[in-house]
Design goal:
mainly beta; six-stranded mixed sheet; 6% helix; globular
């Protein structure tokens, strides 16, 4: 796999305030997706949050470069 096949994605927002998916950084391989569904990591005290997957769509904003020199694409929560 080449460096061009690896993408870094930061999620923005979630279905509820303080959602654990808000602000997570994810590494994707292959083609950069237009959208994807994401379930929260670990256990969550709020059953309704942990049971729901959240849809994220690629932001129209250009990617940014983080402190480690990685190009990071933003994906925003989209309510269903």
């Amino acid at each position: 796999m080449s460096v061009e096949d690896v993408y870094w994605i930061r999620t923005v927002g979630g279905p509820s305030p303080n959602d654990p998916r808000d602000g997570e950084l994810h590494r994707f391989s292959g083609r950069l997706p237009e959208r994807f569904d994401l379930e929260p990591w670990g256990e969550d005290d709020e059953a309704e949050v942990s049971a729901d997957s959240a849809r994220y769509v690629r932001s129209e904003q250009p990617p940014t470069v983080d402190d480690d020199g990685r190009t990071v694409w933003l994906y925003e929560y989209q309510a269903e």
